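Board notes (copied after class):
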Amino acid sequence: MNTGEEITNYLTILETFPNELFMEICSYLTSIDIIIAFSNLNHRFQSLISQCCEIFDLNSVNKSKCDFIFQIHNTHQWKSLRISNSDEKPYWMNHIIENYIFTNNFSQLQFLTVGELKDKTQTLFFSILPSLTNLIYLSIESLCAKEIQSFDLPKLKKLVFSSCLSIDWIQNFSQIETIEYTINHFCENKDHLFWPLTIKHLKFVLMTSVEHSLIYDSLISLSQLTNLEIYQMQSGQVPMFGNRWEQLIHSSCPLLKICRFYFLFRPLSLRDLKQLMNSYATPFFLKEKKWFVNCHLCASDRGRLYSKQTMFYTLPYPMKTLTTYKNSLKKTMSTLPIDDHVNIYRNVETLIYGNYLPINNDFNRTKINNLVIDTQFEAIHWLHTLTNLQQLHIDSYGYISIEQFRLLLDNASRLYSLSLRKSQLIKLTDDWNDFHICKHLSQKIRILKFQSYGNTSECFNEYEIERMVSIFGNKCECLSLGVQIKTHTIEHILARMLKLSYLFVFIPGNFQSSIKKQLPRSRPLTMEWLEKQQTPFNRSNCIFYGDLYGNHFLL
């Protein structure tokens, strides 16, 4: 049997599959993969695609695939959509909203996640949003809401957003039950925050200094509240004493079952700190609610900066990110009995390793997927927590030996993102010659970011580009780096790295400025320059943004 007959028979067998088996196969694929693989075959497959393709994550596609999807598929049937800008694909969400979302019908959409909204993109988005009346879940990475008028999304149950203190636009969400609210900037002062009275789960993340009384007072009318979370991410106010929370819960939030918090604040005297801890050691907290708290006195000496601060939080540790400060686990006060002090960091997903921390039973169930190395790191002690590692960042002050790096790669089967300096990678690959490490990187890394490209010595020359491409060319989808010259470097990357969907290139320029701490400037490229190079990309299949801060290729 020749190859043509084999292919014909295979297609005939696929045609005879019952619908149920085809739907089972599709359950292992994304909607995007299904549409690209099976569209335009016949009426039957087209009908099945319409039934099973409802969830779309457009962050993972390139421009040509995105064009095809919107041309071939009816967005009226979509149930879930995710789009955002990112370090890997800046401007991508803006392009999608302006060119596709604004011109299509998404009336059946139930789940929507978008990135940071600004200016024209925000205006366009909020002109569309009130028409999405079937939304159940809405997440907005960041916006400024002071100019937004209130409206209703009658089926919305959960809202996740970052904003200023202007939240009046959510007042008419009549069915809302869960709100996760990050305060990330100030546009104007507010005396009060008013929430829909239907809220059962409320989460605050404070990225800037906020008066605790503003939060406290906003809870008084929330009699249906069952879950409360407050996370103060920047060093700020000392938390309120436990007796005030006890009074509030008895008088206004009698249904509250879960309370989690994390506060970072300036050091107190030992006397004042003991008073604070004792206020959370009453029968109400320990016996009735079984809410326990920990307190760490710690110091940060990153670089030349040295500061002391206090971490005060509920147990188990409620945050997904843990930073190891100097002495952070040595000076501890807790209301939890010593015998129960195990696995308290099981929620941690990101470990910022800023100072040496001996592994202990608190980390038995920890599964880290994002590791930031900010000092010398010995992987051998942490291997049981790194089996789920997906992203690795080695900071300027971070160090890991070749032997420990090799050991980490051997055990991190899910690793796909690497961020470091060019000089660090050269050392970790023994000048590109360590076959074992280079093979791991070639097979694993899909997102690669080189840091400190403002420093010319950290930018790639032509030889280094060739070595880097030989390692990462097969799988890398997103690449950020600096190059010393544009000739024979950028076009080499675009021609050889066939899986790329995003490329950021910084080209050092000779720009003078009186501003000492100004961001490094790049030589801007143009689409006309790109079209003259020997690459398959042009304005029909590439979105290009170039300015003094870098050049972005969305492929």
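Comment from the instructor: The longest strand covers residues 258-265. Residues 294 and 532 are 62 Å apart (CA to CA).
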